[in-house]
Amino acid sequence: MxxxxxxxxxxxxxxxxxxxxxxxxxxxxxxxxxxxxxxGGTWLYxxxxxxxxxxxxxxxxxxxxxxxxSLRVNLPRHIxxxxxxxxxxxxxxxxxxxxxxxxxxxxxEDFARDFGLVKSIRFGHEVxxxxxxxxxxxxxxxxxxxxxxxxxxxxxxxxxxxVVVCSGKHTEPKIAEFPGRMLGQDCKCxxxxxxxxxxxxxxxxxxxxxxxxxxxxxxxGVRGPGFQLKKLENHKNTWQHSMIExxxxxxxxxxxxxxxxxxxxxxxxxxxKYHFPFLRSNGIITVENNRVGPLYKHVFPPSLAPWxxxxxxxxxxxxxxxxxxxASEALYSWLIxxxxxxx
Length: 343
Hints:
Elements: E1 6-10, H1 14-25, E2 29-34, H2 101-114, E3 121-123, E4 126-132, E5 140-147, E6 153-160, E7 162-165, E8 172-173, E9 189-194, H3 200-211, E10 217-221, E11 230-231, E12 238-241, E13 244-247, E14 252-255, E15 260-262, E16 265-269, E17 272-273, E18 279-280, E19 286-288, E20 291-293, E21 308-310, H4 324-340
EC number: 1.-.-.-
Cofactor: FAD
Keywords: FAD, Flavoprotein, Monooxygenase, NADP, Oxidoreductase
């Protein structure tokens, strides 16, 4: 890639902001597309509830947030900063080592402002299509839309030499698969399902603590071999079961251990799926079993590198060392170095 080339970055969350900064440092001309009206990505809290929280209706309005109001980080702030921009305590902010999500958003807002990234971000712009101009070219067409006058959608097509996808992985819900479906209104008993990944247990545990003082009963489905029904010692109205077998039309939830609960609400804490509805790659890039591929180091599709890349895809991170976000920062620098070799 040449320094005069235009690069499109999809998303202004943590990955998008770091990518934009590294690209600008190398004097690339960067345009960041962000469909929300602020930076932050998954850290931008929205109190609205989706009209179709199960994600069944393809035409539903998507509420772009995966936060719950009381969420606090589960990592100390000193390992969530960047190499040259630490996540320090600021006057008037949340001084805790494990602050609430509002503090993380302020940190990302400050980062975008201090490095002059805001001028490169198009807020309220949803990307509809990313597609190669032709097979012989590395150029990409990016089609986006935004609300114009009288709240009408206005679409626009532009050509970029490279595209970096930083749209995150916390938009499309991953629903536990079992027969039946249940909806309820008056909440007296809540059944909670926990997902496959250990990281997903964190949000389920948080929500369990919040709903147990309000609900008559809370029943938690846990995936694991030979798991037996038991009551949680620290909660007077909470039980753990094996995973859900099915949800009946009469409202009964049947667990794999044979126990049955008459539940009003079923909360899926089963995480999210990778979802790139805008990407047209002629089958080169696929999502199968919630894996994106083929990608070298989870970043470059080999046949399209370095003109198309992904940042922020890995789900699992080794938390044993204090460089969680720093590792991502190194990844952005590596992306730039690979691109420079193609000049």
